[in-house]
Amino acid sequence: MTDSIRRTIVQSIGAAATLGPFAIGSASAQAHKGDIVIGASQPITGVFSFAGTAMNNGLNDYVAWRNSKGGVAGHKLRYVSEDSGFKLDQGVAIFKKIMAAEKPSFFYGDSTQWAKAVSQDAIASNAIMTSSTSLASVVADPAGMPQHIVPGATYPRLHEILMEYIARSSRGAAAKPNIAYVYADTEFGRDGIPGGKARAEKLGLPIVAEIVTKQSGIDVAPEVAKLRRAKPDIVIFQGYILAPMPEFVRQLREAGLNPQIMGTAWGLDKPAYDALGALGVKLSGVSMYRYGHETESSMINNMRQYLATARPEVKNISPFYISSWLSGMIFAEVAERCVKANKPLTLPNMKAALESMKEWDTGGITGLLADLSGHQIPVGRMYAYDSDKKTMEPASGWIKV
Amino acid sequence: MRTAVFHETFASEERLWDSPTARRWMLAFALSLFTLPWWGSDYLLAMACIVGIHVIATLGLNLTTGNAGLISLSHGAFLGVGCYTVAWLGKHGVPFWLTLPAAGFVTAALGLVVGLPSLRVKGLYLAIATLAAHFILTFVFREWESVTGGVPGTSIPRANLFGFEFHGDRRNFYLIFVCAFVMAVAARNLARTHIGRAFVAVRDRDFSAEILGVNLLRTKLLAFALGAFYAGVAGGLLGYFYGAITPEYFVLTLSVFYLAAIIVGGLGTVLGSVLGALFMTFVPELLRLVAHTSSQWFPGVAALLLPMGQVVFGVLIIFFLIFEPQGLAAIWSRIRRNFHLWPFKT
Fold it and tell me: Which residue in chain A has the smallest CA separation from B250?
């Protein structure tokens, strides 16, 4: 052994002996200690309570289920939620309260305006990621809202997928189908329309009517008269959970029109397809998740098994339940990646972990591997109502845009 | 027992807090509020900020409706005007110390326009006219995308006073607290001026007020403008507090919230505005807390109690309307009188 090699070895051992304890100390300081807390302000009461209860149950049940499987890299998940009443003041106050008392690493909120209102505080804390039921494009912004995750495709993406499907299914036909848009004058209603119209134009699909209505208390007759003049082959509803879709359909029938009725996301839930099914209409549209009755997804099977024991009264797994369960899965995956890399749960680390999830398996909730690098999962699939089974059944493969 | 307050000068009689006891209590109250950021939790501080904003807006509506008797259902939309004014000016580099007053003045100018129907109609008819103004304004919030950001909303740059940035609730609290305090004192003083007395005269009988020399045109429009000014400032502060806002915040229920606050608190009094805003903000919160706490001992109770909270809240408002139409301010006055005359009965 030459002198220089011996010197190098001695220097290395010396350096290791000197820096070793600090390195170990640093590593142990980086590791997350204690439970990983998920906070939530859920609209358990108020106008959105029908969804809020399901969202609260979904996240709560995911945490319980995950803990029963050993938690996240040796850490238990802990879920702390309070009722926001779907009021911004209350939702923000709950965020601040839970932030101060529980130091959560993740937080689930109830709306777009909530996500925007807490954004500055969340970024300033540098220690939290947020998600919500909102599919608005404005919150899927990795640069402006680096802490926020959309647990699915945004409304514009869903409408792009819908237009892609219409274009593909009408390929070879003599004429492109005439499409009419009917949407609510809310963010839920309007957000996806420009994206859908732009994709329709690109694909050469004619939009023959565009009707904007209030969210509720609508006089349908004059709007149906407009549709009667436009004679659409397809009417796409956006921004409604149920009403006024059945009334529209009934009056369209009376006017001698029988267009295909389509929708997206929350507008394809059981209340809508049951009500339209009772009128003999086959609702179809783009869903970002599989339905709760499907058996191809291992994770949805887990939900069903868990619900059978924990909430036997629940007969239908709503998309709101699946959405918040999926948010829980994303939170857990982000935490797991950070903990396994021995990195503390800071916003930059968690954001990097999220953006590294480019081919992440959602357990079949989405049919394709999820790419979360854009803080959303831009995939969807066409479903159509099956009047024999009285459920929504797949009508296409999974489409990514 | 306090027998009386003797005033030896006009200045003494004109004081806002006319006895040493009242001044001491006021000082203690102001001090406890001023030190809140040092001892209050983050949650309490956030709630205090929200209450402060609601107090300012409620003071404004109380001037228009409580003092001058002009019903306004566009107050929530006025908040939106203030909020979007601050957002737009802030984005164009206008400093905070100009944006906040500007929010007030822009909204006051709009208040003048909305108040025009009050010259011809009153009561329910005026309510409908202001309701129409509410819908027009919320339509503008949604559609004027270049200014308001449309349905997705807009963000508001942080308030910055000569390099001192109001970030976080602790700093925002002082901003809101100072504004609320100054505007409450201004409202209290206004009620004692000829303008305030003209408001009351118009409220009680506008024909008689006109015969007495009150200019109805000026008084009614001023009542609307002042109320809108308060709402504009409250809206501006709301924007700074949240940092982002969407049109969904300025719905009709917000106007109803403020209307309920002045009725529950007490029409035409500053104390009524403060107590009303406190009641309307904290009682639902308290009911929610009760439901949440009890669910720890009785699992499943929350699912029952949480929706019941809204029912209880509604019943409480009805209770006040029936048994104390003069609002919480009257209850507070009775309590004070009892203390003054203790141990004798009033």
Answer: A88
